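Structure representation.

___
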Amino acid sequence: MTTFVLVSGGYTGGWLWRDVAAGLRAAGAEVHAATLTGLSDRRHLAGPEVDLDTHIEDVTQLIDHVDAPEVVLVGYCYGIYPSTGAADRRPDRIARLVYLDSPMPQDGYSMIDQVREQMPDGPARDRTLSQQERAEDGWRIPAPTLAEWRAHGNLAGVCDDALDRLTRLASPAPAGPYAQKLRISEAVAALPTTGVFCTTGGTMDIAALEALVASGLPLVQHLADPRATFFDMATGHWPMLSTPDELTDVLLRAAAGEGHRLTAATAV
């Protein structure tokens, strides 16, 4: 039986995965959806001391308390940072690390660092980089309003009921985790991985990644490893809300090692 650990991004918690978790369980999988310290129903634990290490420990402890010998660890958006940190601490427990519409965290970089250096110019980049300035009391970033979700959330495919639920349940987010630099070892690079790109309104898809690998860019050459697979999903940034059945199928296929594989750059 496959066991999934699902880690959501900022402002949300384990509730975000309700429909996907139900679909995975119906397919016979075991599912554990994390809620990180200071978010969702754990928002009362928020404070200026909450940082990325706090969230890495949240995910690590969840993995430690799962009976299965290995888990498929799914990190969505910001959630890939604590997921990657936990995978580095428990590489022997990770059957596959899934990057769900998320960046690829790098050692020595915070999420803010990577947004500043790698995200294309535009409103989404500007809004992310201004989070620290908008934080109340210097550490609490307010949850987006309905209007802000509509304007900046890349909500393609999300119905009104799901958007209302997102707005109602979203919590403020501690700022510390976004600014702390991630420290990981080569253990993460040795893990089987799957990348899932949400291509509607997104900035990356399989074709673009293939072009980067073919160009010889050193940073992405390891993605041509045969254990690395990829999927495109024609939806916005919230596939667990917009297309939960399709995402369920993609996660099950990822766990089975399916997906598109890249070809390494040809040496000149």
Q: What stands out?
A: The chain has a mean pLDDT of 95. The CA atoms of residues 110 and 243 lie 30 Å apart. Strands lie at 3-7, 30-34, 71-76, 94-100, 140-141, 173-174, 193-198, 228-233. DSSP finds twelve helices and eight strands in the chain.
